[in-house]
Amino acid sequence: EPEVTQTPSHQVTQMGQEVILRCVPISNHLYFYWYRQILGQKVEFLVSFYNNEISEKSEIFDDQFSVERPDGSNFTLKIRSTKLEDSAMYFCASTRFRDDGYTFGSGTRLTVV
Amino acid sequence: AQSVTQLGSHVSVSEGALVLLRCNYSSSVPPYLFWYVQYPNQGLQLLLKYTSAATLVKGINGFEAEFKKSETSFHLTKPSAHMSDAAEYFCAVIEGQAGTALIFGKGTTLSVSS
Q1: Cis (ω within 30 of 0) for the bond into A8?
Q2: Which of A2, A46, B52, B113 could bridge to A26 as Cys pair (CB 3.0-4.6 Å)?
Q3: CB distance A36 to A46 below 8 Å
Q4: What is the tens place of the pLDDT at every residue in B31-43?
């Protein structure tokens, strides 16, 4: 069964550093998403991406965040200057149809120290 | 604005007992509803979805959910719990075809004892 692949599985970074989280969505999917889950809390929507542009973003997705689809396969989330409160599990998801169930990756655990 | 409310952050059942995880939604238009499961240290796996077809939806691992518009509910059930069902369960909603991205409830932790 097709999978959404995320790398790395765990990243530790110092406060103020830039990080890039990488995702390879399922190849025939058209909509791409980033979510985060702070330990013990709910899964929160960050941003959706369609047709090479952001289609929707949450209040969490401020100027320190950006997304890119640099080629036909990768989808990245960049955090420019990490803060301690950015420590969370970040999930990438994709879907072919907007109102269909999303396929999630296994996540990247980001730890900011 | 759409949202989902999961009643009970923690549910405990005995192996073989009925599992009932509650979810109520709030949406101004017909919603699309989903249940996801998250096992420890893993990603989110789709259990089942309701997208305006049959109101009783069957999913993987013996789970099913019934969409009840009059009660604005989409509760998840399984007739007989297995130890392997212990996990975090999330209800989620998309507000129809013109809706926003998938929005999750706070989750319910299911514990199964022998």
Answers
A1: yes
A2: A2
A3: yes
A4: 889 999 999 888 8
* Straight-line distance from the first to the last Cα atom of chain A, in angstroms, rounded to the nearest whole number: 36
Q: What is the CA radius of gyration of chain A?
A: 13
Q: What is the pLDDT of residues B56-79, one digit of tens each?
A: 999 999 999 999 999 999 999 999
Pick from B44, B45, B94: CB nearest A43? B44
The answer to whether B49 contacts A33, with C-beta atoms less than 8 Å apart, is no
| Contact yes or no for B78/B18 (Cβ under 8 A) | yes
Average pLDDT over residues B38-49: 90
- pLDDT confidence band for B99 (50 / 70 / 90): low
In angstroms, the CA A65 to CA A110 distance is 14
pLDDT at residue B101 in the model: 84
Spatial distance between the Cα atoms of B47 and B50, rounded to a whole number of angstroms: 11
Q: Which of A102, A106, A108 to mutate: most B Cβ within 10 Å?
A: A102
Asked if the Cβ–Cβ distance from B97 to A44 is below 8 Å, we say no
